[in-house]
Amino acid sequence: MTPLPDLHRPSFLPHVPRRAKSGRAAVQWAVGMLCGLPLAALAQPSAWDAPAALRPSPLLGETFPEAVRSQLPVFVFGDRITGQPDVRAEIEGNAELRRGDTVIRAERMEYTVSDDLARASGQVRINRAGNVYEGKALELRVNAFEGFFTDARYSFLRNGAHGDAVRVDFIDRDRADVHHATYTTCTREEGAAWRPDWVLRADRIHLDQAEEGGSAENAVLEFKGVPLLPIPYISFPLSDKRKSGLLPPTVGLDSVNGFEYAQPYYWNIAPNRDATLQAAIMAKRGLQLGGEFRYLEPTYQGQLRADVLPSDRLRDRTRWSYGLQHSGVIGSPLGGLGVNLNIQRVSDDNYWRDFARGSQQLAQLAQRLLPGDAQLSWAEGDMSVRLRTLKWQTLQDVTAPIVPPYDRLPQWQWRYAPTQLGGGFDASVELDATRFQADRSRTGQPNAQRSYALAQISRPFLAPQGFITPRVQLHASHYQFDSMLANGARSFNRALPTISLDSGLFFERDTQYFGRAFLQTLEPRAFYTYTPYRDQ
């Protein structure tokens, strides 16, 4: 065996000719041999004497095709390199090996060419495409990325997760098994006393970067250093990609419902659709089942949720609730029609009181006014039309009743606002017709139809130092009541003009406070409006 000369951080050479006198020659020869260049290409004197220059290179790519990866050159550096050409190299002091997106650093390293095997010890560090492993001893087949690491710490670039392990077994470039390990995504802070808020401890953690997921066996979830929940098996994502699986449960104790336990399950149906299913047990009431479905399409989106308690032992009846929220556009011969739905309904008046706590789905219904709102709208150019129905469900309490609001069954609205009105004027016209209906027998307020017309025109005068906007508006309304009013009338009309003047000034100056530059502004504004008095 002929050892290589001791050079200051040279590259490892599969073969070095005896005439090589310097580190520069050795580096040039290594690149040529490993990249497949003919020997004659490196024998020219000008190649050694040419000044070094930076140039773009495909070797700097973040990913490498499989056919190219096996042909990538291997570079090793160190304070002292010995070995046998084309067989192995031993590097002492600041040892470093590079191949593609993999970098290994250690105090001492041995690399065998025939089986592409690297053995390293003493403050070993691997960086593969941003994922970092640190430990005491490493044995790794570099290209296949097969081997093991002892007393290791790891951190992942994609999701910031990190932890430590007694041993890491590298199965291939994407998969690894971590033994007697911890896993957390809490951001690491400086200082030896830092501890993550939550950490997963497991006998074995399997990591799969290709599937962007991991799993743990015989695990325990800790929060603030306190073990909370033993978990025989759990899977989790290694990126922000959604993943089907169990979500953290909700546990509670209530004086009315008794012990409560709710277990949700997340179902990642598609990139634009998902669902959350939940089963809840309330010791004094029974079993409750529910779920939520969400969807997102190019022209519409929304969510649907529902839950049912088949037999509530405290109320002796079936309890249920549902909700639908939807917004989107549907095609028609006249153009796009906008559809918006917001419907919330429950089984009885006591629902808001009995289920004021619990899951987020139930908390949305912990209110006494639930809308049933449906809108259909159309717009073209300067014109828009809207048809709306709104019916409330009022959850009454005999000890504190509330006046139910009026339903709108239906409401029709037309609006015209020209955008290219000459002379700098702004104008709009709005027509509305609405049927108001509610059970207001206690208050004596009748149901009615209302129609109104609202027209306005204004002329803004704008300048860098301020603005003035005079406006004239006319509001005409007509009411038709179902029953006679106290004055004997069943209808009412009114027409009210309104004039207004809006004005403002802008003052700016450069100033400094506490040694920092600021732009100070002062914007006084004056607004005057007048509507003549009408006795209604």
Residues in β-strands, percent: over 45%
| Dominant shape | elongated
The profile of the biggest β sheet is: 17 strands, antiparallel
SS class: mainly beta
- Parts with pLDDT < 50 across at least 5 consecutive residues: 1-50, 57-61, 358-363
Percentage of helical residues? Answer: under 10%
Number of strands: 33
| Number of helices, where a helix is a run of at least 4 consecutive DSSP H or I residues | 5
Mean pLDDT over the full residue set: 83
Radius of gyration: 37 Å
| First and last CA, distance | 112 Å
List the helices and strands and how they pair.
Layout: H1 23-34, H2 45-49, H3 66-69, E1 75-77, E2 80-84, E3 88-99, E4 102-112, E5 117-128, E6 131-141, E7 146-155, E8 162-170, E9 175-183, E10 198-208, E11 213-223, E12 226-237, E13 245-246, E14 250-254, E15 258-270, E16 273-282, E17 286-296, E18 300-312, E19 317-330, E20 337-346, H4 351-354, H5 360-363, E21 369-370, E22 372-380, E23 383-390, E24 393-394, E25 407-416, E26 426-437, E27 448-458, E28 461-463, E29 466-481, E30 491-505, E31 507-513, E32 516-522, E33 525-530
Antiparallel strand pairs: 1-3, 2-3, 3-4, 4-5, 5-6, 6-7, 7-8, 8-9, 9-10, 10-11, 11-12, 13-15, 14-15, 15-16, 16-17, 17-18, 18-19, 19-20, 20-22, 21-24, 22-23, 23-25, 25-26, 26-27, 27-29, 28-29, 29-30, 30-33, 31-32
Note down, in words, how this protein is organized.
- The chain is mainly beta.
- It has 5 helices and 33 strands.
- The strands form 4 sheets. It has a 17-stranded antiparallel β-sheet that branches. Strands 1, 2, 3, 4, 5, 6, 7, 8, 9, 10, 11 and 12 form a 12-stranded antiparallel β-sheet that branches.
- The chain is elongated, with a radius of gyration of 37 Å.
- The termini are far apart.
